[in-house]
């Protein structure tokens, strides 16, 4: 039996939401506790539930928390994190970072705005311009860090969020990795949605393009060893 305090932040938030839903369905504290023990193997006390509801607790996990539900911003952020975005953890300082470095200011600003809205912030996270002429933005959120990390480790967990807003996910990936070219001979515009060694990801994007938008695409190898890209021909 697991204790609530031993769960990571993303799991805590999921349990917290499950408790709220059970309470709204009419179950009392004891029945909620029993149900969670049987179905989730989580041990919650009467005191914990009493505190949550009597103090009108809105969330758990700190100020940089977000609600794990599908949104355009979340889908876009996931796309970026499967592209140029990165996660990092400083265990000593307990800093859980989501970061983007890019030469395109508008791209970095859009990512910053999306994360800001996702975390309920009125202002964008700051953007710096280091000596290397690369724009950078960095966000600290333990909950968002673990949520994205769990999807990177098991991509199927992210599909319900992505497939609700597929265009935003593809846009985030394309903003990170995409390029376009024009062939005067054929008058075709080739749009490379993404370069990646993650073939499963590219196959999924190919499926999204066709299933959700009717767009034909193909995968082809590029010269870089072990890399593939997804190309939209149109």
What descriptors fit this protein?
44% helix; 3 domains; Endonuclease I-creI; alpha+beta; single chain; four-stranded antiparallel β-sheet; 234 residues
What would you say this structure looks like, in words?
The protein has a 4-stranded antiparallel β-sheet, covered by helices on one side. The protein has 9 helices and 10 strands. It is globular and about 70 Å long. It has helices spanning 9-24, 29-39, 46-54, 72-81, 105-118, 142-153, 159-162, 166-177, 199-213, and strands at 2-3, 42-43, 86-90, 95-102, 127-128, 135-140, 179-183, 188-196, 217-221, 228-233. It is α+β, with helices and mostly antiparallel strands and 234 residues long. The mean pLDDT is 84. Helix 4 packs across helix 5 and helix 4 (72-81) packs parallel to helix 8 (166-177). It folds into 3 domains: 2-54, no CATH class; 72-154, Endonuclease I-creI, CATH 3.10.28.10; 178-233, no CATH class. Helices cover 44% and strands 21% of the residues.
